[in-house]
Amino acid sequence: MVRTHVLICGGTGCTSSGSVKIREAMEKEIEAAGLADEVKMVQTGCFGLCASGPIMIIYPEGTFYSRVTLDDVKEIVSEHLLKGRVVERLVHKEDESKDVQPVSLAETTFYKKQHRIALRNCGVINPENIEEYIATDGYQALGKVLTEMTPEEVIDVISASGLRGRGGGGFPTGTKWKFAAAQPAGQKYVVCNADEGDPGAFMDRSVLEGDPHAVLEAMAIAGYAIGADQGYIYVRAEYPIAVKRLEIAIGQAHEYGLLGNDIFGTGFNFDVKLRLGAGAFVCGEETALLTSIEGKRGEPRPRPPFPAVKGLFGKPTIINNVETWANVCQIILKGADWFKSMGTPRSAGTKVFALGGKIKNTGLVEVPMGTTLREVVEEIGGGIPGGKKFKAAQTGGPSGGCIPASHFDVEIDYDNLTAIGCMMGSGGMIVLDETDCMVDIAKFFLQFTVDESCGKCTPCRIGIRRMLEILNKITEGKATMDDLTRLEELCYYIKDNALCGLGQTAPNPVLSTLKFFRDEYVAHIVDKKCVAGVCKALLSYKVDTDKCIGCGICMKNCPVGAISRLPEVPAGKKLAPVTIDTSKCVKCGVCMSNCKFKAISKQ
Amino acid sequence: MKTLEELAAIRDRMKGRVALREGSNDIRIVVGMATCGIAAGARPVLNTFVEEVNNAGLTGEVTVTQTGCIGICQYEPVVEVYKAGEEKVTYVKMTSEKAKEVMEKHIKGGKPVTEYTINI
Asked: For labelling alongside A11, which of A57, A262, A333, A577 has CA 20 to 30 A away?
């Protein structure tokens, strides 16, 4: 009889830090200890605290081990599983400096403030076992819909819940379904957009890896609601674990009769096919995605007609993002009022964010809408490492903007973020501190969109390239204030004239940094200074000859031989101090990091 | 699978197995499983509790877990029962048979089996 479950994270983060090998070693060790009948290993989806992976949780105690290595396996089995002694040194510590440590996952500040709906099964069930999904009320919502509700009632519940598209647009999901349902009967399609492309965003991947059936079930529900019998999941090929688990899930759902023909004996048919994307950012745009599923080059087309009217293969199609799907079954089971009780009046429910950048707890968090940015960064995220100051949070990736420190207490929802010139986006949240240059950040995202522009329309293909050139000039200290004016003009022109979302939103990172950090742009242009010390062309390294003792370590380490000794040895010193030839210097910073006497500084 | 009943059957069968991962039950049975406990025969006692709890369908209410040495090695196997709002009961020199009795009388019946406790 099984008395203990050992959960080990099988998400992409922990897998890349070796969780699969650890699982295999654990299984061997458990077998060797004669515990195979008592202890069950369960590989789950992402727990969310990716920064501390590989993560292992042992139930029923709920002991939470982080940063487990292969060397720890023997000790965990012989001490914890055999003798019941918690291996204290491996227990997750939120703050190394404090003595009192929480031992269970739920007690950590990282989890306490979270409210998990889309992620409810991630890190709890084995995503490769449909029965574990069924155990947590899986496929009950589909059963309820097929046997107790009319398609209109389903759409009414989704509309009343206030669920809005989690891919970033925030369009009301129920309204979208209503449009598609209103089309004349015939072939219709349901599509899941799993082409997650924003740099730093990984919540869709985690849902697919941790709870693939939740997406399949929701798609079947939508199929019933609009009268479609075929679903497609468009997922990037670069998410191999998600693809594998989806394949397993679709196979198991067929085996159990939860996909296929005559589901629950109601005569309703629904099937799901996978389509792998090659990783073009533009294919996350819905019309480009549909074109790509059709087997054509992934290019967007003008809307209207909207996909709900004329979508995949010219048929009415609803397309929703992974996280949106992950909310649907819970809304059906618990009701619209339950969902509306969370979040803000105009943004119901929760939102998953992928926390990254200058933050302690890099990982995945799900919070009710209306949670303040401060709570997400300082409490759940654990703050900024190294005691540095919060400067801004970048949300929405290359289509989004930044939330500066002055809006640190903004309650995060669709409308509040739009009001400050930012956007919710799909949920990537990159935290920036005082050592990040905002012009450089804008440049980074623009470089990304330039690379990813499909080239179909001129404003995007040519326009954002011109913008990038101006940004390059600014970071190199070669720009004038006229360039800045031209940059802004271009922003508005491209916003108004690009064909699809990629181009229309590409100027956002520039516009929002200009709005909140214009002085940084001006400092680059007029004073030729980068305050954060990022833009290399504007930096210069200087030696403080009073502090320099002339040890010569910097001279040895300089890769270009830019450092030489001054001719004279000053009174009271044994060696002559050094000097840097700025014409040779490549600004790598090696001299500064090697100087024990802090005699070299950058300006 | 063709019916909702079949789905419900799978759910009920699996629920007990996944419930283990919820952790915080009202009743906790803790078995001392240090070297002293294992040597004195704590493993069959632990397994008996696990089986009995499962058979009784109480996985949602009762957690069976293990702990290290409590310090009274001469009394091993030691089992402690924690019920919310009640004082902890410590059983000593346990066996599988005694464990079954504790399950019946204490866990299900609500009355500690005083002849096996340390207090007497």
From this structure: A333
